[in-house]
């Protein structure tokens, strides 16, 4: 293909890349190189298709590197994101501090971003897979392969004054491209799945596959209450997804214990009190638990307590309460990247300045999930995409003057 010249090349047409392109001044020539056949493909899948785009509780404790993200969130927070999207024409609504498009359709977010990028005169090149970046005479040569259906692949090489790595990660159907910056001397923490199911031992799962409960999960010192979905290989659901970050970030490992609390609203003493009041002295263990739990959960609580369902409940309430509050699993690992919302790992953010420009190569930037920054469920990862893209775009605009 012809050698095209740009002021800025953004590698990756996902959330961060599109947001950066929408923030850049329209007098710059901007190109987005996207490996998929359309931009924003992963964005359409976020929040189960509803696109939880930020959170009004933007606390830095929700991130793996809170001290790194704090300054970026101070400069561009959830309210700034909402205001920006509303200027683009997106109406938002809030549910439990989580911010969604009013339509509850991720396509609405993508539509306004695409329109903003189009108005900015950005050249969007889909099916363009970048394989290498070279820095030469303060310019960048960006090369790769253009894939055309029914036609041979075609090589391309474009040049730019600034390059932005916004390629996300290998989560879901993404692609890890952090190696593109290794040639500049950057270091990478190997990405591992995060916000994903947790694989556990199978015995405590027997009969629970497909059962969905609201419960607490504890790994080490961290405790999370939310939806838990039992799968044939382990635990899924929002609470499990958030807790998976403890494993992805190295604070827990295979072999460690995970406990499920089936009555998170009550202490163990309160659980015992509830069931002692229900016990008439003649009930079996099974009869005592009827009406409180899903029948399959009830069976496993009885198993974990070391009881038989026909045992007299009197004298067993203490061990039942312990099983209810501390139902145990052994962690075996994390779900596959195809099941993950994000990956934990990436380029070391300490090797970039306060605007995410490389400290090793001038005018090379990395934003979003390409960096070793990941957050919990609830809009935190998209807010990082917006905040990091904003910082890089303002820096590029200033440098290009």
Protein model, in words:
Helix content is 27%, strand content 26%. It is α+β, with helices and mostly antiparallel strands and 401 residues long. Strands 1, 2, 6, 7, 8, 9 and 18 form a seven-stranded mixed β-sheet that branches. It has a six-stranded antiparallel barrel with strand order 11-14-13-12-15-16. A three-stranded antiparallel β-sheet has the order 3-5-4. α1 links the parallel β1 and β2. α6 crosses α9. It is elongated. The protein starts with a strand and ends with a helix.
Order of helices and strands: EHEEHHEEHEEEEEEEEEHEHHHHEEEH
Largest sheet: 7 strands, mixed
CATH class of the largest domain: Alpha Beta
How many β-strand stretches? 18
Mean pLDDT: 94
What is the rounded Rg? 25 Å
Assign the structural class, choosing from mainly alpha, mainly beta, alpha/beta, alpha+beta, or little secondary structure.
alpha+beta
Q: What fraction strand?
A: 25-35%
Tally of helical segments: 10
> What is the overall silhouette?
elongated
Specify the CATH homologous superfamily of the largest domain. Answer: FAD/NAD(P)-binding domain
At the fold tier of CATH, the topology name of the largest domain is FAD/NAD(P)-binding domain
Overall number of domains: 2
Q: In percent, how helical is the residue content? A: 25-40%
Q: What's the N-to-C terminus distance?
A: 30 Å
